[in-house]
């Protein structure tokens, strides 16, 4: 359990890799369940769908509702589990989320609390492709609730929108856009993120609406570095 440290006194996290946990026992179980549900609801809002749309998932290659698979798993399986969530659960999610390669079947099963073989709830390639962002949302929600402090190496969740996903126009406050000439990445900003973190993340936006002359004079790569590293530094302060 190297990635988790229990600390109920200081909110600061000086580690690059380890999560600091500030609550335990039944309270931790409650905040984990709240974070899972909020992560699922945030994903629905992000894509401009509704909870009823999870019944429309077909699993085909052209299925536009496939992005809601994590919601289906969380609502219909994970949150119905009688398991008491603990620091081990957070540890397993963070380990899976931090890996650069595709999520493993074991990692998905541990996150959703399924065996991975049930019809309609099999943790195959489709599930792996769409699950990482909801893991990232879940972890950030725990952080913003004050239950954990994420480490510096935590990466904010993003979605590569073009050309794989057609995203409808939205006024969702949970979208942060990073646009480059070759692709469009949309960052998912979890509810309850501090205004400072939102501001820092928006510094990396490649648009013409940056009011600060200092920031607008920076190169695109410098703005992205300032955005990512600045937000991470604020994050580890708790």
Biggest sheet strand line-up: 1-2-3
The tally of domains stands at: 1
N-to-C series of helices and strands:
EEHHHHHEEEEHHH
Number of helices: 8
Shape: globular
| Rg | 18 Å
Q: In this structure, how is the largest beta sheet organized?
A: 3 strands, mixed
Number of strands: 6
Helix/sheet category: mainly alpha
In terms of DSSP E residues, the strand content is 5-15%
Mean pLDDT, to the nearest integer, reads 80
Helix content: 40-55%
Structure description:
The protein has helices spanning 25-46, 69-76, 87-98, 105-112, 125-144, 195-202, 213-216, 220-236, and strands spanning 4-6, 19-21, 148-149, 158-160, 175-179, 184-188. The protein has 238 residues and is mainly α. The chain has one domain (4-236). A 3-stranded mixed β-sheet has the order 1-2-3. β5 (175-179) and β6 form a beta hairpin. It is globular, with a radius of gyration of 18 Å. Residues 162-167 and 177-183 have low confidence and may be disordered.
Keywords:
three-stranded antiparallel beta sheet; mainly alpha; 6 strands; three-stranded mixed beta sheet; 238 residues
Question: Gist?
Answer:
With 238 residues, the protein is mainly alpha-helical. 42% of the residues lie in helices and 9% in strands.
Could you give the topology of this structure?
Layout: E1 4-6, E2 19-21, H1 25-46, H2 69-76, H3 87-98, H4 105-112, H5 125-144, E3 148-149, E4 158-160, E5 175-179, E6 184-188, H6 195-202, H7 213-216, H8 220-236
Parallel strand pairs: 1-2
Antiparallel strand pairs: 2-3, 4-6, 5-6
Helix pairs in contact: 1-2, 1-5, 3-4, 3-5, 6-8
């Amino acid at each position: 359990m190297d990635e988790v440290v229990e600390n109920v006194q200081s909110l600061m996290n000086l580690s690059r890799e380890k999560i600091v946990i500030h609550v335990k026992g039944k309270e931790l179980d409650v905040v984990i369940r709240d974070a899972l549900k909020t992560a699922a609801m945030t994903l629905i809002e992000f894509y401009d769908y509704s909870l009823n749309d999870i019944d429309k998932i077909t699993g085909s290659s052209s299925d536009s509702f496939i992005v809601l698979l994590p919601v289906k798993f969380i609502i219909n399986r994970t949150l119905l589990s009688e398991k008491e969530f603990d620091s081990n659960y957070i540890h397993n999610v963070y380990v899976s989320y931090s890996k650069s390669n595709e999520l493993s079947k074991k990692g998905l099963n541990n996150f959703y609390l399924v065996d991975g073989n049930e019809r309609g709830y099999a943790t195959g390639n489709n599930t792996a492709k769409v699950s990482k962002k909801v893991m990232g949302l879940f972890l950030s929600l725990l952080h913003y609730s004050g239950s954990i402090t994420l480490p510096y190496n935590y990466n904010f969740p993003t979605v590569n929108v073009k050309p794989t996903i057609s995203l409808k126009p939205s006024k969702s406050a949970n979208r942060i856009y990073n646009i480059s000439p070759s692709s469009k990445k949309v960052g998912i900003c979890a509810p309850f993120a501090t205004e400072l973190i939102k501001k820092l993340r928006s510094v990396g936006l490649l648009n013409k609406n940056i009011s600060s002359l200092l920031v607008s004079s920076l190169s695109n790569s410098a703005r992205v570095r300032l955005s990512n590293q600045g937000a991470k530094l604020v994050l580890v302060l708790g």
